[in-house]
From TrEMBL:
This is Adenylosuccinate synthetase. The gene is purA. Plays an important role in the de novo pathway of purine nucleotide biosynthesis. Catalyzes the first committed step in the biosynthesis of AMP from IMP. Binds 1 Mg(2+) ion per subunit. GO terms for molecular function: adenylosuccinate synthase activity; GTP binding; magnesium ion binding.
Length: 430
């Protein structure tokens, strides 16, 4: 019986992980967000209601699930409080069901200001960040100057630490970027006010997780972003500042690798990317317009139009290797319903040497052009289908081809945004 399941993205984020976490959470006791911050946007549709979560684990919409935001996440307390209130307004009550690690680092207003100013200065060379302060907050963590959630428990120490870090940021913001300076007392007041709301949630989440594992509870680890945005293994420097591949679960929670039973890689039936950076299968034609519109490919955090492209089999195989994936979940299959033919990149060709590569380094994609295989489209509605045998033959063929390219089975297929528009090909908990 598989108990501990990781759900992570194989592409550049926005694969639809949130919906799958929500769908599988009905079978789990705990759901854990383990890296990233409110740069993530997980869109869920429950009872015709659209809910977008940025920090709160997606499984929490089920009334008996316990949510954990573990040490690997960088937390903006003001955003977290906003999200808690939004859920309350929508009649989702999470009292006594959400816990936050005392060793998670904070995102504060000066991180956001620096992120935005740096991007502005970079101009055409900008990373295209979400502007949520993610990079500067992780820099502080590595430089050992972060304010952490646990620091909120000692007002005096918090005040001293905060004054120091605000001075550090003001130096850069004012002198380099001509930004207005921050007053640490204002930030302190806001932090202490929000602290009252989250106080009872703060704990040592590692201990909670060890105990859950010991008691054989089912845990879902919810990834954010995607493998190709990983700080070490992605398309650097056009990446996020955390490990969105499997290692992020280990460092971001304190749970060891032997405790992970099943790793599900979520991939869209095509590709998208927001922000700048290489995207070999990117489309610039009518099909881009079609995918954007039919797939509603606009960022749930920033509203930016996502770049679209064909499914990239080389990148998918890379994600399988990087994450030791057990199986795939294919999302948004229904978006392809009206296409006469569908392409999948099966290799790259180096345009200088004309060599063909079925595996490649994602550090350097310059001169790499995709080599495609073309499949017939099905030109039939698949949205809402819940059994694999009800899919048109051409759609079943497409799934089989993806399995062959990736070398692992497809265990779940999503055919629409609603919780139940889902095909469970295999019971993954067995
Ligand atoms: P940051 O994480 O805000 O620093 O942004 C770095 C890169 O990651 C940018 O290209 C963002 O567009 C991308 N990114 C960050 N979070 C997400 C996400 O949740 N989905 C898709 N792209 C993301």
């Amino acid at each position: 019986m598989k108990k501990n399941i990781v759900i992570l993205g194989t592409q550049w984020g926005d694969e639809g992980k949130g919906k799958i976490v929500d769908y599988l959470s009905r079978y789990s006791a705990y759901v854990v967000r383990y890296h990233g911050g409110h740069n993530a946007g997980h869109t869920l549709v429950v009872d015709q209601k659209k809910i977008v979560l940025h920090l709160i684990p997606s499984g929490l919409l089920h009334p008996d699930v316990i949510g954990i935001i573990s040490n690997g996440v960088v937390i903006s307390i003001s955003e977290l409080v906003k999200e808690i209130e939004m859920l309350k307004k929508n009649n989702f009550f999470i009292d006594k069901r959400l816990f936050i690690s005392n060793s998670a680092s904070l995102i504060l207003p000066f991180h956001i200001a620096l992120d935005l100013e740096r991007e502005k200065k970079l101009g055409v060379n900008a990373i295209g960040t979400t502007g949520r302060g993610i990079g500067p907050a992780y820099e502080d963590k590595i430089a050992r100057r972060s304010l952490r959630i646990g620091d909120l428990n000692n007002e005096k120490k918090l005040s001293i630490k905060l004054e120091k870090i605000v001075n550090y940021y003001n130096d850069q913001l004012v002198s380099i970027y001509k930004h207005k300076s921050f007053d640490y007392k204002v930030i302190l007041k806001d932090l202490l006010e929000s602290k009252n709301i989250i106080n009872d949630m703060i704990t040592d989440t590692n201990i909670m997780l060890y105990s859950a594992i010991k008691n054989k509870k089912t845990i879902i680890f919810e990834g954010a972003q995607g493998s190709l945005l990983d700080i070490d293994h992605g398309t650097y420097p056009y990446v996020t500042s955390s490990n969105s591949t499997i290692g992020g679960v280990i460092t971001g929670t304190g749970v060891g690798p032997k405790s992970l039973d099943y790793i599900l890689g979520v991939t869209k039936a095509y590709s998208t990317r927001v922000g700048n950076g290489p995207f070999p299968t990117e489309l610039f034609n009518d099909i881009d317009n079609y995918l954007s519109k039919k797939g509603n490919e606009f960022g749930s955090t920033t509203g930016r139009k996502r770049r679209t492209g064909w499914l990239d089999g080389v990148a998918l195989r890379y994600a399988v290797q990087l994450n030791s994936l057990s199986a795939l979940c294919i999302t948004k299959l229904d978006v392809l319903d009206n296409l006469k033919e569908i392409k999948v990149c099966i290799a790259y060709q180096n345009m200088n040497t004309l060599e063909i590569h079925t595996n490649t380094s994602f550090n350097n994609l310059e001169n790499m052009k995709p080599v495609y295989e073309i499949y017939p489209g099905w030109m039939e509605k698949t949205s809402g289908i819940t059994k694999i045998e009800d899919l048109p033959n051409a759609a079943q063929h497409y799934i089989k081809c993806i399995e062959k390219i990736a070398g692992i089975p497809v265990d779940i297929i999503s055919t629409g945004p609603n919780r139940n528009d889902t095909i469970l090909v295999r019971n993954i908990f067995l």
